[in-house]
Amino acid sequence: MKLEDYSGAEAFQVEKRSMFAAEWLPLCAEGQLAQPGDFVSASVGGWSVFGVRDGEGVLRILRNACRHQNMPVVNTPSGHCESFRCRFHGWTYDLQGRFLSAPAPVAPKDPGSPDLHLAPLATTLTAGIAFFRLGAGPDASAAAVPPDLGAAPPAYGGTLTTEIACNWKVCVEQLLAGQSPSPDFAWHWPLLAVRRAGAVTVVEQVVPHTFLRTRLFTHVFGAPADDHRPAAATLKQACETLQAERAAGTLAADKGALTADFHRRLGEAYARAAVA
Ligand code: FES
Fold this sequence. Notes:
Elements: H1 9-20, E1 24-29, E2 38-44, E3 47-53, E4 59-63, E5 78-80, E6 84-85, E7 92-93, E8 99-101, E9 122-126, E10 129-133, E11 156-164, H2 168-176, E12 185-188, E13 192-197, E14 200-210, E15 213-221, H3 229-247, H4 257-275
Antiparallel strand pairs: 1-10, 2-3, 2-5, 3-4, 6-7, 7-8, 9-10, 11-15, 12-13, 13-14, 14-15
The chain binds FE2/S2 (inorganic) cluster (FES).
């Protein structure tokens, strides 16, 4: 990896088009969308999406792009609603993303057209985590199946959200540092780490928000999420220190086999982008 891969918009755009467009990506824990109308939105690797539990209890993930002029329909990270109204000109969608109505001055010519519905994305649930896939990019067939997270976790205990001023790769490297694959620790390319300790399972989900902003979801199963608040704060501090070292021109050697494997897969993704 090069230093500029950690701080430049150019590398992030390459990752957006060549990796994140093709891979199965986690959005949230299923437990964050417990009730009909609950939603979570995020920019994941530069792709704006949101997940919602619809009126029939089905969890859906959709592109967060209004069919009127492509602006984001959902503008808060999480919440609860009966329908989605785009704040720009008032187009309104139901919990399945279907177009409902629009003010007369901006109403579409054919309000019955299915092209007016928000674009649904391939969605799946595994071990309490909701994944989506855009299925685009130069290597769209690279990830035919979502990662296997193993056995179902214990009861959902909550999710901590930590905003970190670092590139997403710094956060991944910090999660992997000094770790090796074992029954108690697993890394799932590109954005998830799963740790097990007795009856508790912690899923660390990296959300690449922009090239210098990362959101970390710490999903806790089998214990209250608040128990892990100190650990999340420590991780944030470590990531921001590491990012500052990158900015100062220090690129540390790989810390362990998992970090080396992460860098190898990144290199492959960059190479695919180069020939696309
Ligand atoms: S962009 Fe959404 S209503 Fe115009």
